[in-house]
Amino acid sequence: MKKITIAIDGHSSCGKSTMAKALARKLGYIYVDTGAMYRSVTLYALRNNLFCEDGSIKTDELKQQMANISISFQLNAETGRPDTYLNGECVEQEIRSLEVSNHVSPIATLGFVREAMVAQQQQMGKDKGVVMDGRDIGTVVFPDAELKIFVTASAEVRAQRRFDELKEKGMPADYADILKNVQERDYIDSHREVSPLRQADDALLLDNSHMTIPEQDEWLMERYNEAINK
Fold first, then answer.
1. Where does residue 83 rank: exposed (0-12), middle (13-18), buried (19+ CB within 10 A)?
2. Residue 215: CA atoms inside 13 Å, Cβ hemisphere, count?
3. For the CA atoms of 35, 39, 109, 145, what is the dihedral angle to 10 degrees?
4. Are 6 and 21 in contact (CB under 8 A)?
5. Are the beta carbons of 227 and 146 closer than 8 angstroms?
6. How confident is the model at residue 171 (pLDDT cuts 50, 70, 90)?
7. Does the pLDDT value for residue 194 go beyond 90?
8. What is the DSSP string of 95-129?
9. Pairing mode, if any, of strands 130-134 and 5-10?
10. What is the tens place of the pLDDT at every residue in 98-112?
């Protein structure tokens, strides 16, 4: 059966990772969480004291250490979902912390970081049959993807979802802090010089602010069937 590349871009905390994982599982495709890759680099930088006290990044040191950063995904038999591994260590929980969230955008704006991550992502998806979500998949990583989707929702809805997700995992969460983080990340992501967040000209817009998960899944499968039959 014909396989395609599916690129899902959009704002932070709009549920695109969850939908991309579910779609990949349903289609038997490989799923790559590119946001988790940037979060892993951020966690590496935090662990190795590559942030100055004022929050700025020790870019020269990080650039020298990029070759030491290996990111992979392994299926978790219990959850049925892929977990993120940093240099062989499962970091799925740690990379979802608010501390990492507060530091990931400046890391993701660095050209040499994006270049390294894009090269890894393109290698992962070279044989098609892949669902990849992030900020620049349809515009930079796979500009020729057969199906491109841009997902959005209001900042308030996204903050509430992130709050609920953290509470469900038993992690500390404050709605006001999360909303502030969501709004700041939106601004940084859309104004950065390298690969700014934008909807690809040929991407389909999905605003899921008021959609249920089943409605969203149905919409995605309809778009997939249209793309596969072109």
1. middle
2. 7
3. -20
4. no
5. yes
6. confident
7. no
8. GGSHHHHHHHHHHHT-HHHHHHHHHHHHHHTTTS-
9. parallel
10. 899 999 989 998 999
